[in-house]
Amino acid sequence: MKKVVSLFSGCGGFDAGFKEQGFDLIYACDIDSTAVDCYARNIDPRVYLRDVTSTEFHRDISTIGSCDIVLGGFPCQGFSKAGPKNVEDKRNALYIEMKNAIAVLRPQIFIAENVDGISQNFKGAYLERIVADFQQIGYRVEYRILDAIAFGLPQHRRRIFFVGIKQSIHQHFSWPEPTHFFKRRNGEFTIADIHPVEQSAHWQQTTLRAGDIQARPLPQQIQTIKDAIQDIRDLDIDIPDHRITHRWPSKYTTIFHTIREGQKLCNVRHASTSVYTWQIPEVFGSVSERERYILETIAKYRRHKKYGNLPNGNPLPVDEIERLSRLHEVQQDLENLLSKEYIKFKSGGYDLKGALFCSGLFKRPLWNEPAPTVLTNFHNPRYFLHPLEDRPFTLRECARLQGFPDTFIFTTSNTSQDLVSGYRLVGNAVPPIVSKAFADAVRQFLYQKEKAMQLLF
C-alpha cells in the first residue's frame, strides 16, 4: 500500500480521494485545530496539530523518514485575488517548508495546490521560483490550472496544481482528464473556450487524433446548483450541518427581496445583472428622478477609456455629466448626491461612491448554472445568496457544492462560532472529486512505473 503524507491538510478534501483509492494516509498535519479535529473524525486519526515551521514538525518528518506521495495545499492568502497581494506576506514562503519536507521524505511524486492568482500576481515571479526551488532538490515540476467543474463539481473552482516527479524516474505522469463540458467565464485566462476533451493533458488548445477522441467516453453535462441542493431547500430537514447563522442586520431583508436570480448589488457595473443602491431607498436613502438619472449616467460612462485608465472607473467632469445626461445646471444635484453619500468628488470630477467590491455584493447566482467559487465567507449573505431563498447558503449546501458527502460532518456543536468555522473549512478545501481524479492518475502513474521496472529486470 502506497504511503501518503499530507501537509496543510485542512479538513481533508485533498486526501479524501486518495483514501477512497486505497492509499495509506500515514501522516497529516495542519495549524488549525478545528481542521485537525474535522480531519480526525472524517478521514483518519493520524493527523496532528502542527506549525510547519516548528521543531516538532521537523522532528515528525525526520521520524517518518520516507513515503511515496506528498500532498500539500500550502496557504494562499498572499496570492489570492480576493484579498491584498502582499509580496512580503510570510505565508507566501510556506511552500519552502513543504520543499524541505519533500527533501527529507523523497517521495516518488508530490502534488501541491494553490489559487490560480499565484500565476498572475507579482508577474509570475513566485511561480518561477517554486519550480526552480523544487528542481534544486531533484524534482521536475509541471503545473496546470484546472477548473473543478470539468470533473463534475457543480461549481467553478479554478486552482493551480503542481506535480513534481523525482528526476530519477522517467515515467510520464498523465494529468487527470476532464469528464464534463464547461465554458470559460468572462475575464478568465489560460483555459481556452473549447470543450474539455479537446483540451487534453496540457489543458490548452491541444488537438487530439480522431482515434483518441473516439476511444474516450463522451463528456457529460455540467452539474448545477439545482442538481446539488434542490432536495434541501427547507431548513428544517434533518441533515447534518444544514444550518445558517441568522446573524445579519434586519435591513438586509429588504435587499434580499430586491435582488433577483442572477443579479447582484452593484453600482459600478452598468448591466442588467446590477441592482443599484438608489433602487433600494428604504436602505440607502431616496433620490429624485433627476438625481437618479445623473447616477445612472455616471454608472454607464465611468468606465469608458476616454475618461481615464483607472481599472475600476474614472470620475466624470461636470460638463460631461451635463452633456451625457442632457440635463442642465446639475451642480446642485451633484451637491445633493454628495451629501447623500452616493457620489464622491475626485480629481476634478464625480464618481460613484463605494465600489462594492467592483464585482458586486449580495450575489444571487442562477439556479440552473454551476455555483461561483465557494469561499470561506458564504455564511454572510452580504457576499452570496441562495438562488431562490432569501438567505445565504447553508453549510451543508456549501459542502455539497464542494462535493462532500452528507456523511462528512464539519461541526460538533450548535454554536455560531463552530458553524462559521465549518464554512471556513469547506471554503478552503480541495474538492474530493478533484482529489479522486488525482488519486486515479497517481495510481496509474505508479503502476506504469513499477511495470516498466519489472520489464527491466
Automatic annotation (TrEMBL):
One of its GO terms (biological process) is negative regulation of gene expression via chromosomal CpG island methylation. This is Cytosine-specific methyltransferase. Keywords: Methyltransferase, Restriction system, S-adenosyl-L-methionine, Transferase. GO terms for molecular function: DNA (cytosine-5-)-methyltransferase activity; DNA binding. Its EC number is 2.1.1.37. Belongs to the class I-like SAM-binding methyltransferase superfamily. C5-methyltransferase family. It catalyses: a 2'-deoxycytidine in DNA + S-adenosyl-L-methionine = a 5-methyl-2'-deoxycytidine in DNA + S-adenosyl-L-homocysteine + H(+). PROSITE patterns: C5_MTASE_1, SAM_MT_C5. Coiled coil: none annotated. It comes from the Bacteria. It comes from Reticulibacter mediterranei. The active site is at C76.
